[in-house]
Amino acid sequence: MNAFEMAQAQFDAVAARMKLDKGVADLLRWPLREFKFSIPVRMDDGSLRVFTGFRVQHNDSRGPNKGGIRFAADETIDTVRALAMWMTWKCAVADIPLGGGKGGVIVDPSTLSVSEKERLCRGWMQQMWKHLGPRQDVPAPDVGTTPQMMAWMMDEYSKLVGVYTPGMITGKPLGAGGSLGRTEATGFGVTYCIREAMKHLKMDPKACTASIQGFGNVSQYATIGFTELLGGKVVAVSCWDLKDKKAYTYSKKDGIDGRFLLTIVDQYGTIDKEAAKKAGYEIEAADAWLYKDVDVLIPAAKEGQITGDNVGKISKQVKIIAEGANGPVTIDADKEIQKRGILDIPDFLCNAGGVTTSYFESVQNDMNFYWSTEEVLKRLDDKISVAFHAVLDMSLKEKVYMRDAAYLVSIERVVKAMQHRGWI
Ligand code: GLU
Predict the structure, then answer these.
(1) Atom of ligand 1 nearest to the CA of 83
(2) Over the stretch 70-100, which tens digit does the pLDDT of each residue have?
(3) Catalytic annotation on 102?
(4) For a tag site, which of 9, 93, 249, 309 has the least CB within 10 Å?
(5) 3-state SS string over 15-33?
(6) Any domain includes 247
C-alpha cells in the first residue's frame, strides 16, 4: 500500500464530486514544498552515520504548516506526503488556523542511545530551521518521537535563531513550554468523537465495549478515556513487542485497566508480557483485536491496518470504527465498511485532538501564560464536538459517508482560504 496514492485517491473522489476546478485540484493533490536532506550523526562508537530526513509542507493557506515528525525504519517520502496532506484536512476540519505538514527520519529509534537520539534531533533541526518557525511551520511528535525530542529540537532552534522560541514546536514536556493536557489530548479527542457518535446512534456508552490496536500515546489515552470518561469497557489492546519483533493482543473480558498498563509499558509502546500475564491478561495473536465481538473498534497504531483481506472478519456487532491512527483503513476496506453501514469516524477528524491541543500549546507559548488541565480539556472537548457535528451534519445533508463528509468540510475551508488570499 502506498499511503500517498491512498490520500490522493480519497481526495480525487471528493474533488470530482465537488466538481472542483482542475487547477485547484492539481494544487491540492500535491504538497506546496518538500525537503529531503542528509543528517550526519556522530555515533557513540565514534563512527559517522548519515540519516535521511524529510519535511513536507502540503498547504499553508489557513496558517503555518503543522504536523509531527516520525522516526520510523520504513519512512518514505510518500508516507510523509500523505501524512502532510492529511494534516491540512485535519487542521481545517478542527477549524484551527494552521496548514498541513509532516516530517520524518528513516530510523528505528529503539536502536539509538539517548545521546545519539539527541544528536539526530539537533541535526534534523540544523537542516530545517530556516523553513520552520511559529509563523512558518510548527512540528510536533508523532510515531517514534517524544516530548524530550521536541525539547531538544526547540533548544537547537532557539540557539540557531538566538531567541528562545518555544512556539516553534509543540508536544514539549511540561516545564519546557509544554501544555497540560497534551499527553491525553489525542486519545481523549478520539473518546469525545465516540461519545458524540454514540449519542447520534442512541447507544449507551456504559453498556458498550471496545477493542483497540496499539498501545502508544493515542491508544493509551483512548483506553483510559473510553473507560473513565464514557464508563465503557475496553476488552483488548494490541501492541508491538520490541524483543520478539511481533505484535500481540492483550485481552481481558472484565475490562482492561489502562492506568495499570501504563505502569508496565515502555516508551515504544511494548507491554511487559510477564507482568500482564501475572495480572490476568490473556495474550493472543497480533490481529485478534480486530475480530473481537465489540461495539467499537479503534485502530490507533499505523496506516494500512484494516484491509480488503481482513475487513470481512470484523464482527457483526461493531457499530463504530474510530480511527485513532492516520490512514488505518485502506481504500478496499473502506468500501466494505461503508457497505456494512458502520459509522466510521475518519482519521483526520477522530485524531484531531492532538493537533488541536498543539495549537493551544503554541497559543500559550505566544502569550507566555499557561492554562490549567481543565481549561485545556474543556476547550478541546468544545472544538472536537463542534468539528464532529459539522462533519455529521454534512454527512446527513449530502447523504455521504463520514470520510467524504469530512473531506467536503475541510476542502471547502481550504479552498475558501486560498480564494481569500488570491491564490486561485
Ligand atoms: N502527529 C500528530 C498528528 O498526526 C500531532 C500533530 C501536531 O500536534 O502538530 O496529528
Answers:
(1) 4
(2) 999 999 999 999 999 999 999 999 999 999 9
(3) yes
(4) 309
(5) HHHHCCCHHHHHHHCCCCE
(6) yes
